[in-house]
C-alpha cells in the first residue's frame, strides 16, 4: 500500500482504477499519490481509498470505496475530480513535457461490496 485513507468495511460501490506505470516512472507516480491534495476524502459518499503497488506486474490499483454508485458519479462531475485529474505541465498541444510514465491506457473495474452475513 502506497497510500491509504478510510476504512474498507461494509457495503458499497468499489472502483478500481488500474494504471500501468513504467519501471522508471514508479517513483514519480508514487510521489504524486503520497503528495496528493486529498480532495476526494471531502466528497459526499466517500468511504476509503488505497493506492496498491503491484507485485508481479506494472499495474497499480487505485481502490476507492463509495457508499453507492451515485456518489461516485457525482464525484466524477465535481471540481475536485477535475483538479485531481488535470494534466501536469503540458505543451500547447496538451502533451506532457515530462516523458510519459504510462506505457498503456489505464482501465476501470467496478464492484459492489456486500457486507458479511
Q: Which structural category do the helix and sheet elements fall into?
A: alpha+beta
Mean pLDDT: 86
The number of helical runs is 3
Main β-sheet: number of strands, strand sense, barrel status?
A: 5 strands, antiparallel
Percentage beta strand: 25-35%
Euclidean distance between termini CA atoms: 28 Å
Can you describe this structure in just a few lines?
This protein is α+β, with helices and mostly antiparallel strands and 117 residues long.
Describe the 3D structure.
The protein is of the alpha+beta class. It is built from three helices and five strands. It has helices spanning 26-34, 69-76, 79-84; strands spanning 3-6, 12-20, 46-52, 59-66, 107-113. Strands 1-3-4-2-5 form a five-stranded antiparallel sheet.
Topology:
Blueprint: E1 3-6, E2 12-20, H1 26-34, E3 46-52, E4 59-66, H2 69-76, H3 79-84, E5 107-113
Antiparallel strand pairs: 1-3, 2-4, 2-5, 3-4
